[in-house]
Each structure stands twice: as C-alpha cells, then as structure tokens.
Specification:
Elements: H1 2-24, E1 40-46, H2 53-61, E2 67-72, H3 79-84, E3 90-93, H4 103-114, E4 119-123, E5 127-129, H5 133-143, E6 148-152, E7 154-155, H6 160-165, H7 168-176, H8 179-184, E8 197-201, H9 202-207, H10 220-230, E9 235-239, E10 244-246, H11 252-260, H12 263-267, H13 270-290, H14 298-314, H15 329-340, E11 345-347, E12 350-352
Parallel strand pairs: 1-2, 1-4, 2-3, 6-9, 7-10
Antiparallel strand pairs: 4-8, 5-10, 6-8, 11-12
Length: about 350
Amino acid sequence: MILWWLATLFVTVQLVVLVTNTFTFPVLVPARTPRTRRRVSLLIPARNEALNLPETLPLLLAQGADELIVLDDGSTDATPEILAGFRGLRCVQGEPLPEGWVGKNWACHQLAGVATGDVLVFTDADVYWGPGALTALLAFAERSDAVYASVWPRQRTETLFERLAVPVIDTILLGLLPYPLVKNTTDALFSAGNGQCMMWTRSAYRQVGGHAAFRSEVLEDVRMGQAAKGRGLKLVLALGGDLLSTRMYRTPGELLEGFSKNILAAHGGRLPLMFSVLLSTLTYTLSWVLAFVDPLWLVPAALGMFQRALTAYKTHRSPLEGFLQPFTAYPLLRVALRALSRKGYRWKGRSYGAHD
C-alpha cells in the first residue's frame, strides 16, 4: 500500500496545482496596441532551420516589429539561401562558438548585441506567430508593468510519438508551478522561462547579465526567469493559446535527442531523474496493470488520465489526449535511458561535454 499512497499522492498534488492553474495561469489573447510605444527587436537564432523558416518567417515579418534580426549560427543546410530570399529582415552571420558556451546562448548573446530595440523579444525559428501575437505579448506585459515575460506556445503534434511525449512539457509546467505563487511571492523558485518566447526590457536583460551570465546552461531560459525574480524584477508568464504555437520535433530521433539533452539538468541529477521516471511509470502506466490485482489502483490511474485531459484543455488541445496517458512511459523511459547512458549530449550537430 505504500506504493499506492505514493502514486496517489504524486498525482493528487499535481492535480491540485493544475486545477489552480486552470483558473489562474494566463493565456495570451488578442489585444490593442500597448499604450507605451517602445522600439521592439524581434530576435531569432537559426541553425539548420531550412524546414521551419519558409513557414515561420512570413508570420514573424507580419508582426510589425521595428526590426527583425535572424542570426545564422553556422548552418550547413539551406538556411542561408532561404534567409537571403526574404526582405524586411536583417540577417547576421554568427561568430564561431567560443569555449564554454552553449550554441543557442551564444547566438542570443550576439543578437542582443546588435539589436537596437528598447524591448528584446527572443523566439525560436520553429515558433508560429499568429496575427497580432507580438502586440498581445507587449500589451500583456504592460498590463502588469512587467519587464520580463515568457510564453509557452501551444504544442503542434502530428505523429503518435509526438502526442505521447511532447505535451509532458505542459504537464510539468501546469502541474508543478502554481501561478499564484509566481505572481505573489518573491521566491525565485516560483519562476520559470521558455526560450521559445522571452520578452525583456533591455534594462532587465542587463540586470540579469543577459545570456552571457548563463553561457554554459542548457536550461538557460529557466535560470534566467529565476534570476529575474531573484532580483526583484516584475515578471509574467503565459500560455500561447491560439496566438503562439510550435512544432518542436518532426522525428522520433529529434525528439529523443532534444528531450535527453536537458532532462538531467531539469531533474538536478541522475538519482532524482531515476526516481521521477520510476514514479511516473508506476502512477500513469503500471497502475492500470496493478488494478487487475487490486482495484484501488484505478484511483491513481484515472486521476492520471484526468490530469492529462485537463492539461490538454487548458493548452487548447483535445482533452481526448487523456487516453494517451497510460502509454507515456514508453517515450519517457527511452529519453531517460538515453540521457543516463551518455556523458554529455549532442544537439544541432554540436557536442557538449564528453560524448560517446
């Protein structure tokens, strides 16, 4: 019964946080132009983004930013040719990656250095910005007098493997970070960030040290958000709703590589990761098997499905995804085993740390 209580407590605590966030976690919505007019730089690091840029760049150009700057970070595919075919943007060639830097952090650092805006908006090349999304983001931050804002785009998933694995991002965010504590406490632990969409005033960006202060961090977006709160800066977080969306990975290989590169850092080490994976597998998957032995196991099993359905509803996805929750152990175990079996990681053709 100890395992039953552990699994039930695990999913119940997350459900309490999730229900709270269902009513309190902001969702980006269309808005009028902000009252304060500031120069806005929209900044995109791009390394081997030939598949995404033809779809996302026209949407970014339509946002009406004062400047749109794309940094080509040593791409080896058709990214440079694609960028050359667009007007209305500034393309910057990235410098070689220095020792001790993560590639994206170095690219964003360079972008901030050449930007001329009072407001810096960092976004990824695979993020789809709907009409009026930038205006909505700026107005959202202005309403709260925030100098830092970060948004989690709605996840686009087109394959079964994506649907099983990718929404875990939303499950973690909405199940572990209660927004009332983000809004009403000064503890930096109750903060976060998402590099897919981060808005900074230039002053706030400098106060946290910019990307240079987090040069070797694989979770630099989370650490930057925590640093902002730790310095007493006003911040807001939101979900992308119908205005911001993304398709992060297109193949199982990309997904496994992408998730495994930061899962260890997110858990704080190997032992916490192993404990988390085993507990998640017990709660969401094995509970259905154990229910044949003891029907009480249907309690955490059903709560897990409801958790996934409610998360999907909040993030503007189909609540029917709740039926996928018992099968999420498969990609989770693959990601964890990949991370645990390697020293270092590889991403976008670059190796970090020892790599087998």
